[in-house]
Amino acid sequence: MEDREMEEEMVVEEREQVAPPTKVEKSPYNMLKESKVSVEEIVAKLLSIKRENKPKLKLKELLTQTFLHFVTLRQVNIHSLLDFSVFHF
C-alpha cells in the first residue's frame, strides 16, 4: 500500500510541476489607459525639453517610446475589433 501511495504522490507532484505558468492578460481598456498615460508623460517631457532649450539627445528615445505606444494602441484596437466581430457577426 505504501508503495502505491508514494507513486500516486509522485504523479501528482509531476503534474503540478508540468503545469504551464498562467499568463495574466490585461484588458484592452487597461492597456489603452496605460498607453495614454505614458504618451502624455512622454509628450510633457518633449515639451519641457523644447521650452527649456535642453540638449535634444533624449528626443530619439522619447519618440521611439511614443511610436511603440502607438503600435500598442493599434494592436489593442485591432484585437478589440476582432473580438467584437466574433461576438456580433
Automatic annotation (TrEMBL):
The keyword Nucleus applies. Residues 1-11 have a biased composition (Acidic residues). One of its GO terms (cellular component) is THO complex part of transcription export complex. It is found in: Nucleus. GO terms for biological process: mRNA export from nucleus. The keyword Transit peptide does not apply. GO terms for molecular function: mRNA binding. It comes from the Eukaryota. Keywords: Nucleus. Signal peptide: none annotated. InterPro entries: THO_Thoc5. Its main location: nucleus. Residues 1-25 are annotated as: Disordered. Belongs to the THOC5 family. This is Uncharacterized protein. It comes from Rubroshorea leprosula.
